[in-house]
Each structure stands twice: as C-alpha cells, then as structure tokens.
Description:
It is built from 23 helices and 14 strands. The chain has helices at 6-12, 33-37, 39-49, 67-72, 105-116, 149-162, 179-193, 198-207, 226-236, 260-263, 266-269, 280-303, 309-313, 316-330, 338-352, 361-364, 368-387, 392-406, 433-441, 447-455, 458-461, 471-485, 487-492, and strands at residues 24-29, 55-59, 77-85, 88-96, 99-103, 123-126, 169-172, 209-216, 244-247, 251-255, 273-276, 411-413, 416-420, 426-429.
Amino acid sequence: MAQLNYRVLQESGYDGFVLRDAPEKVMQFGEGNFLRAFADDFFDIANEKAGFNGKVVMVQPIASGLSEIINRQEGLYTLYLRGNEKGRKVDDKRVISCCSRALNPYGEWDKVLELARSKDLEIIVSNTTEAGIVHETESKFDQTPPISFPAKLTRVLYERFKAGLPGVVILSCELIDNNGKELLRCVNEYIRDWNLDDKFKAWVNNENVFCSTLVDRIVPGRIRDPKEVEALNAKNGYEDELIDVGEVFGVWIIEGPAGLEDKLPFKKAGVPVHVVPDVTPYKKRKVRILNGAHTGFVLGAYLAGFDIVRDCMNNDTIRGFMNKMLYDEVIPTLPLDKADLIQFAEAVQDRFNNPFVNHELMSISLNSASKWKARNMPSFLAYVEEQKKLPACLTMSLSAFIAFYSNQIQELNDKGLVCKRAKGNTYTISDDRWVLEFFYEHRNDSVEELVHSVLTNAKMWDMDLSDVAGFEEAVVKGLKKIRTDGAEAAYKSCI
C-alpha cells in the first residue's frame, strides 16, 4: 500500500478539504501528537472556513522526532476526533493539510533562521512539555541550535529583528501557569546573558505578543493496536505513519490584548478558540470542574470496584455524586458566567463517557494528596465561606481520599504504598514519599486518630483543616461509612 502524500490522497478518492500550497505563516515548535490534534486541527479548519491560507512549519524541539516521516508524507496526516457530544457517539476523520514541512534544527538550523526572516511569518506556536520553558546558562547565542527552547526562540526573534521585520504572535501551549509570561521572562534573561542590544530587547517586549494560553483536549495519540491501524489504512486506501487521535471536545483560551481575536483566524472559522484579557478564570474552571471531578470521585469509585472512568459514568450513584458535587458545590463558587460553567460541566460528563478511551482510575489517582489540595480544597473552602455550611460531596471526597490511602495497608516498598480493596486485589499508591510514609506510620490508628492526623497535617494542606467547623466530625462519619457499607453506599448517602 502506498504511503500517504498528495498524489496518493487524490488517488484514494478522499473528498475532504485539502490545501496544497500556501504561504508559511506559522512556525511551530513541537510536532508531536498533541499539537497535531489540537492547534493544527484549528489552523486546518481556519484554512477551509476562514480563508487563512497559511501553512505550518513544524520544528522538532529535540534531536529525535517525526520530521523525516512528516516530510515523506508531505505534511499530511489523518486525524480522528472521537468521543461523545451531547450524548451522541462521534468518530470524525479529517486529513490535515496545513503543514508544509518539518525541520530538525539539529541539522537544519539555517533553515529555521531562514524561516524567521520570512515576511509571511505571523505566528509562533510551542508545546515543548512542562520542562521546555526553562532558562539555563548552557545555551549560547552561536550554538546551532541553542539548547533550550526559549534560547532557540530568542535566536529566532533576533534573526527577525535584524532583518527589520515586524514582531509575531507567540502562543505558548506548555502546561505551566502563565506559560507566555514565563517564556518572555526566559527570553529576556537570554538577552541579558548574551549582551544583546537594548533596541532588540525593546522590540521583543513591545512589538511581539507573548500569549499565555490554556489548552484543553485529551489526545491519546497514536493507535497502538496494529490490527486497527491496518484496517484504517485499508479503508483509507493509503498507509499513514502519523495517524493521530484526539477527543472531539477541544477549547483553546488565549490571553491577549483587544483586537488579537480579529487578527487570528480562529473566530471567523468558528472553532473553539477564544481570546480573553485574563486566562486565570478559565484555568480555574478547568481545574475545579474537569480535574476536580476526577479527583473528587475516582478514589471512592475505585474502592467500590470500578476501574475506568467510562464505567463510572454508567453508574447512577457515581455519576449522581459527581454531578451534585459539580453543579451544587463547585459551580456556585466560580467567577464566570453560570451558563458557561454549566455548559462546560455538561461536556465533562460526555468526555468522561468517551467510548474510545479506557481512562484508568489508578492513573488518575497518582499524587492525589496534592491534587485534592489544588483541585478540590479551593472549592470546599469557598463553599464553606459563602454558604456557611459543609458541602456534602466535597467533604465525602476527602473521606474517600483517606480511605483509599489507608485501606488494609500491606506494605510500603520502593514502588509505593500497597493497599487492598474489597475485591481482594492489592493496589499500589504513587505519591510523594513523605505522604506515603505518613499513611504507613498511621496504619494502625483508629478512624478518629487518622482523620485528626490528616486534617491537622499542615505540610499536606498548608493549613489546619480541623479548624473548619464540623469538618473533622463529618470526615470521620464519611470514612466510617465507607469502611462499613462501602464507598458506593457512602456516595449514595450524599445525593
């Protein structure tokens, strides 16, 4: 079977949108599954529906990557967006044609700098992982290329400045707070380290727009079952080494100045990309609703015998517990339009019920101590402050956290804390070592002693949670209910 390229795609009879030639308007640091299923999907639709007429040049952040395969396929790849949308099963296919080529800067740095000098370039996108936005002194101006991503970007911008060209819009997608601001901070540090002139510094800070962004789409990435890949290739009529899979839900929140939304091609294309003055409330929405839902129900659900998220959504008690927590306890505390929050929460249930993704509860359980603190505790404290009473589901979620970390503790080994659930099988908890040691040390405590020790652990919560009126007694009651009647019954008592 022939490998995907423009000729082969035409011969296959594909009748979707394809744009073969257009100016290279986007430089993208990152060619992995996420950006190809997220940003490039939106750029591709912008070409079709908004007349963006722009191509993306992908740049590998590290020496090993996909550039050779991308270039063999002339930038083409097949994207499947799968999941539930308003209760409807979705499995959409689109051949993405917005990528013109890919560059490996470790052998083609001159071509990266050539692109930096292009009058067509308008946007730089990056996703170089959470560790990508760092300032380290090993990166030098004359390296080909400099080591860190911010150093590479500084060099790219310097090349553009020297060519007398206007600045660009920089969209940082790394999963850290204030990603755009942090990237600009690192660039300014390299300007200082390399003793670059003040005019360049002024140009970087005044003529370019560094945007912090919030990205939200689950991207499982490549299909691991070779039989499924073979079947898809046979159906498509070509071999595709770059097949990518993402969930159908997706939203990109970009923090930027007034007028940027009209400058970018997404609004006209009708894709879920929004420019806002401050991304913080939207990050709070995602963390407290989407991530908070996960952490709020999965630990008790696992003890109740469930293993994947989708099965939890098909159980009236678990789903009802999650929905009451979200709609009655979390949403009322958030500073955004309530209709928007409700719509986002409704999408969460669809996303959790994705028939194509087996999202394991144990994978979500990693580092649950810090997750409950970041995702659930702010909603809990805000609810108590505003309603002057305890939120039943969020309170029970902490009881479930303690139950999960203390359920028939077997041992503490190099891999984690080994516990046993009702089915009789053991499970290993992964968390910071001091958290695991804490629960192991308290494995013989009574319920009352254990709850008091957890709530008063300032290292765990940065405060004494026993100071919240009635909370300690309620958590004790919830933990006893879980241990006596089971987690599902405990969840049911809250709804």
